[in-house]
Amino acid sequence: MPDRDREYVEFVGASSAALRRTAYLVCGDWHRADDVVQDALYKLYLVWAKLDTRTPFAYARRIVVNAALDTGRRPWRRETPTDRLPERAWAEDHTGVHAEQDELRRALAELAPRQRACVVLRYYEDLSIEQTAEILNCSQGTVKSQAARGLETLRQAIDRTRANGCAS
To answer: For a 10 Å CB count at each end of the chain, is N or C smaller?
Structure first.
C-alpha cells in the first residue's frame, strides 16, 4: 500500500468518530450523519494526494459541515416541523444520566441549520470565530450573530423544557 493511502486509512481510523459526532450535531440525525461522513471521506480521498497533511482534520471537518448543511437543503430531506418529538425506538435511560444530553439535542434541533453549525463549531468543537467563519465560508460578524442567536434560542428552548417538566 502506498504511503499516502496508508496515511489516509490511518486518518480515517483516527478521525471518523469525531467527524461523525460533528455531523450529527449539525444535522441532528445519526443516519444522515453517517451518510455525510461517508460522502465527506470519499471527497477527501479524491484530494488526499494534493492535501496539506498537516491539517487534514480541519479540511475534513469543513467538508462534513458543508455536506451536513447541504443535505438539509435538498427537497427530499426537508423536515416537517411538529410540536412533538417522535417516540424513540429504544428504551429511555431511567437513571437520568443522559437527561441533559437529550435536552441539549432537542434544543439543538430547534436551531436553524446555520445557527446550529455555528454553535456546534464554536462551542462543541471549540473553534475560534475565524476558524468557524472559514469553515462556513462567511464573515466573522455572521458567525458572531448566528452563534449569539443560536445560544439565545438554546436558552429559550431549555427554559421551556424545564418549565414544562416542572409543571407536569
So the answer is: C
Taking the C-alpha atoms of residue 126 and residue 129, their distance in angstroms, rounded to an integer, is 9
Higher pLDDT, 89 or 30: 30
Q: Tell me the angle at which helices 30-47 and 56-73 cross, rounded to the nearest 10 degrees.
A: 130
How far is Cα 2 from Cα 50, in angstroms, rounded to an integer?
Answer: 15
- In the numeric block, the cell 477527501 is attached to 44
Cβ partners under 8 Å of residue 23, min gap 6: 32, 33, 34, 36, 37, 40, 64, 65, 67, 68
Q: What is the mean pLDDT of residues 72-95?
A: 58
Let me know the angle formed at the C-alpha of 8 by 6 and 13, rounded to the nearest 5 degrees: 95
User: Residue 156's closest CA among 117, 103, 90?
Assistant: 103
Calculate the CA 31 to chain-centre distance: 13
125, 61 Cβ separation under 8 angstroms: yes
CA–CA gap between residue 111 and residue 107 (Å, rounded): 7
d(CA 62, CA 117): 11
One-letter amino acid for residue 26 of the chain: V
Residue 127, sorted as left (phi over 0), alpha (psi -120 to 50) or beta, turns out to be beta
Q: How many CA atoms lie within 13 A of 61 on its CB side?
A: 25
CA–CA separation, 134 and 142 (whole Å)? 11
89-118 average pLDDT score: 76
